[in-house]
Design goal:
- The complex is a heterodimer of chains A (about 525) and B (about 300).
- Helices cover about 35% and strands about 20% of the residues of chain A.
- With about 525 residues, chain A is α+β, with helices and mostly antiparallel strands.
- Chain A folds into three domains: about 60 residues, no CATH class; about 180 residues, D-Maltodextrin-Binding Protein, domain 2; about 220 residues, Dipeptide-binding Protein, domain 3 (Roll).
- In chain A, the strands form five sheets. A six-stranded mixed β-sheet of chain A has the order 11-16-12-15-13-14, sandwiched between helices. A four-stranded mixed β-sheet of chain A has the order 1-10-9-8, with helices on one face. In chain A, strands 4-5-7-6 form a four-stranded antiparallel β-sheet, with helices on one face.
- Chain A is globular.
- Chain B has about 300 residues and is mainly α.
- Chain B has two domains: about 70 residues, no CATH class; about 220 residues, MetI-like fold (Orthogonal Bundle), CATH 1.10.3720.
- In chain B, about 80% of the residues lie in helices and about 0% in strands.
- Chain B has 14 helices and two strands; from the N terminus they run ααααββαααααααααα.
- A two-stranded antiparallel ribbon of chain B has the order 1-2.
- In chain B, helix 8 packs across helix 10 and helix 12 packs across helix 13.
- The longest helix of chain B has about 35 residues.
- Chain B is flat, with a radius of gyration of 23 Å.
- The chains are: A alpha+beta (about 525), B mainly alpha (about 300).
- Chains A and B meet through helix 6, helix 7 and helix 14 of A and helix 2, helix 3, helix 7 and helix 12 of B.
Chain lengths: ~525, ~300
């Protein structure tokens, strides 16, 4: 017996020694002045003109600079690489560049770089992935060593938004030498961080650009090094954050975020983003006209009934949490032109039932609710619909597949979401969905005309009035059932001074260690 | 034996071709690749542009034949998403997946063979039951769940092991166990039944009658015979491991083939998914082929089937 105990102890000791040898000192972070962050998606390339994921925007803000800068709080446009800008006519803008700005390789940033980059992006032959960001540019011409003129194809009010949100400026000589492929793995910009190491699919290492120009409205970078990892599984990200191997993650589901918030070393900031969730109906009756399907949603009363049936406040509060709130207009509240004084359909099941009865469905009807993400939210909607007699079958599909079905006119009721590419203007959402493009299920000519007129006007008051009219009619006709804003749970180390913004583009160049 | 080998080889080739064909079709009908590639919110023009540029507008069968023709020449095409040659991407990540697969199989063998032997020496006793329970648990638990549990225990609470990445051998410990444990029951049951059969046979009785020491009988005479079918099963299990690594690699963020498959499916990066399916199918078919040959070599009766 005694020998057995000795045996057991020896084995335990052996395991313990082995274990202590294995124990990895994971605490990097503040001590090493290294910010460890993770994103779910791998970036296809670091060339911003050839990637489409949100991660690409985040990366670009750190490595490159745009001509303009949009203040994340006031939404005011300021010069970034541009010292000043002015409209000469509705289709011509003159930009004076700052002097003395250097790329990470030491080259001077001049008008040649701006002309080269923007003309490259605007030329369809170069097949940039982000066509919509630059296809409004007709040509960019050099008017001096540090001045350029941007010529537009037609008046385009979102020009400032796209010059500040997209279209980073590249070094002409370097890009021409290494090409898109070379630039994609070894990009050079003027931004607050420079890239020092890229392991595709695994990590990207950035270090502080100590020569970053002093007047930049972005401010000066503070943290010395950023290690950006790709971790596809959110549970793994959460575990790494809990052990201190990561200092920051975002888009954490509410239940996980709730647990992280209880940990002493971590902070959770559930920040509202520009993404909204909404239900869209086949109001134009394509499913009926083209496919002979029975379509209750062509009836305004049914669409209004659904609007009254969905308890959006409850989904926002209980399922999304944080700063999520109900929306009633077909846009994100801070967006330019997002009229809030529209017809509001409050949660009222009895009114919904009454409307259904008036529409000839006293016992409701059977239908399908399509969605591509957030199944729990969609399940709550199905529950709400069941309360008023609409028996909706839930069908979750891949985004591409659902979109195909919708564009074929076969999906009558869809729960969709839209992030407006973080553009603070309703042209990025309402105009996108109501101007008779493929995703327009309402096909209301009146709405289209108002929106189109507003889109091409640069008269602020006029735009506002036109968008207001369009949004009021959209609500009146209940083409959509706008529901709630999304929240991104930013979870990070308490050592980190970090502030999230509604555009959901984290700005680590503003972050500091406490 | 030669005819048998040729027959098996023909079958293997047929299986590979069918797998590649079916997967090609399935992947394409699961969603419009042009929409996926153009990104969320792309306009119809952008989508059409992508569709024509990448040739998705042509008939499926034409696309398949063209792809297969090039694949035969070792050209797996280029990933439209990453703009890189697929062959290079696979080569880059093969190492991680192979390391994981082989170490998981080794782990499975190291765990299951002794368990199987123990269970066979004391059949229908509590030792047998415990051995069974240990191995069946491996099959009952979904590997991703087991992986997460290990992460919570060894990674978060005890902080003994790194959670994600593939930088050092320590990074491979948890994924190896998570993946290997799943294969344990099959091997363990095979060892157990093999051992039971061999231990009851005449030559073992003779060996015992000769007065040979028990360990010698067990390892030299019994296990040697019982382990032969295990080798064949292990080859097939390795195929399973390589396929099963899709989930495990994404849980532990190992940058191997499985992870690549996972993200490529999500972003409809067809050439990559296609190439991985083909590659795994070839490996799996090859391993099955080898295991068939081993079995036939060991057991002449099979050759006549």
């Amino acid at each position: 017996m005694k020998s057995r105990i000795t045996h057991f102890l020896a084995i335990s000791l052996f395991i313990l020694i082995g274990a202590s040898f294995l124990a990895a000192p994971a605490w990097a972070g503040k001590k090493k002045d290294t910010l460890n962050i993770a994103f779910s998606k791998e970036l296809e390339t670091l060339d911003r003109y050839f990637n489409t994921a949100r991660e690409g925007i985040v990366m670009a803000r750190h490595v490159f600079d745009n001509l303009l800068y949009r203040d994340p709080v006031t939404y005011e446009y300021k010069g970034l690489l541009a010292k000043s800008y002015k409209w000469i006519s509705t289709t011509e803008m003159e930009i004076a560049l700052r002097q003395g700005i250097k790329f990470h390789n030491g080259a001077d940033m001049t008008a040649d770089d701006v002309v080269y980059t923007l003309n490259f992006a605007a030329n369809p032959d170069n097949k940039v992935r982000t066509q919509r960001y630059s296809n409004w540019i007709k040509e960019v011409v050099k008017s001096g060593p540090y001045t350029v003129k941007i010529l537009l194809k037609k008046p385009f009010p979102a020009a400032l938004e796209f010059l500040s949100g997209a279209n980073p400026i590249y070094p002409k000589d370097y890009y021409a030498k290494v090409g898109t492929k070379g630039f994609g793995v070894k990009p050079i910009g003027t931004g607050p961080y420079k890239i020092t190491e890229v392991i595709p699919g695994q990590k990207i290492v950035m270090v502080k650009n100590t020569n970053y120009f002093k007047d930049s409205p972005k401010g000066q970078p503070s943290i010395g090094k950023i290690v950006w990892r790709t971790l596809p599984e959110i549970n793994t990200q959460v575990a790494e954050l809990m052990t201190g191997s990561l200092d920051w993650i975002y888009l954490v589901p509410p239940d996980q975020a709730g647990k992280l918030a209880k940990m002493p070393d971590l902070k959770v900031v559930p920040a509202e983003t520009m993404r909204i969730g909404y239900i869209v109906f086949d109001a134009a009756d394509r499913s009926g006209k083209e496919h002979g399907m029975k379509n209750p949603f062509k009836d305004l009363k049914v669409r209004r009934a659904v609007n009254h049936a969905i308890n959006k406040a409850s989904i926002a509060k209980n399922l999304i949490g944080g700063e999520s709130r109900s929306v009633y207009s077909a846009c994100f509240p801070t967006q330019f032109g997002c009229e809030q004084d529209v017809k509001k359909y409050e949660y009222d099941p009895s009114k919904a039932k009454k409307l259904l009865a008036e529409a000839g469905f006293p016992n409701g009807f059977e239908t399908t609710l399509y969605c591509y993400r957030n199944r729990p939210f969609a399940e709550a909607m199905v529950g709400n619909l069941a309360e008023v007699g609409i028996k909706a079958k839930l069908m979750k599909m891949k985004y591409a597949a659902l979109r195909e079905k919708s564009r074929a006119g076969k999906a009558q009721m869809q729960f969709l979401t839209w992030g407006s590419y973080s553009i603070n203007d309703v042209s990025a959402i309402t105009s996108h969905f109501f101007e008779f493009e493929e995703d327009d299920l309402a096909r209301d000519a009146q709405v289209r005309d108002w929106l189109a007129e507003a889109d091409s006007s640069i008269d602020v008051a006029k735009r506002k009035a036109l968008y207001s009219k369009a949004l009021k009619r959209i609500a009146e006709q209940a083409y959509w059932c706008p529901m709630f804003t999304y929240v991104s749970n930013n979870c990070f180390s308490k050592d980190l001074d970090f502030r999230p913004y509604p555009d959901a583009v984290p700005r680590f160049f503003q972050a500091k260690w406490k | 034996m030669l005819i048998y080998t040729l027959k098996r080889l023909g079958l293997a080739v047929l299986v590979t071709v069918s797998v590649s064909f079916v997967s090609f079709m399935l992947i394409r009908v699961s969603g419009d690749p042009a929409i996926a590639l153009a990104g969320e919110g792309a306009s119809q023009e952008e989508i059409e542009f992508v569709r024509v540029q990448y040739g998705f507008d042509r008939p499926l069968i034409v696309q398949y034949i063209e792809w297969a023709g090039r694949a035969l020449h070792g050209d797996l095409g280029e990933s439209p998403y990453l703009n890189q040659p697929v062959a290079g991407m696979l080569k880059e990540r093969m190492g991680v997946t192979m390391t994981l697969g082989v170490s998981a199989l080794t782990f499975a063998m190291v765990l299951s063979i002794p368990l199987g032997v123990l269970a066979a020496i004391r059949p229908n006793t509590w030792i047998d039951r415990i051995a069974l329970a240990i191995s069946v648990m491996g099959q009952a638990m979904p590997s991703f769940w087991f992986g997460l549990i290990m992460i919570i225990f060894f990674g978060v609470h005890l902080r003994w092991l790194p959670i994600s990445g593939s930088d050092t051998w320590k990074h491979f410990l948890m994924p190896t166990v998570a993946l290997g444990y799943y294969a344990t029951p099959a091997i363990m049951r095979l060892v157990r039944s093999g051992m039971l059969e061999v231990l009851a046979s005449d030559h073992i009785r003779t060996a015992r009658a000769k007065g040979l020491r028990w360990p010698k009988i067990l390892f030299k005479h019994a296990l040697r015979n019982a382990i032969i079918p295990v080798v064949a099963v292990a080859a097939v299990q390795l195929g399973f491991m390589l396929g099963g690594s899709i989930v495990i690699e994404s849980v532990f963020a190992l940058n191997g083939l499985g992870n690549l498959a996972w993200v490529s499916i999500a972003r409809s990066d067809l050439p990559v998914v296609q190439a991985i399916v083909l590659m795994l199918a070839i490996i799996y078919v090859f391993l099955t082929f080898v295991s068939d040959l081993i079995n036939a070599f060991l057991d002449p009766r099979i050759r006549n089937v």
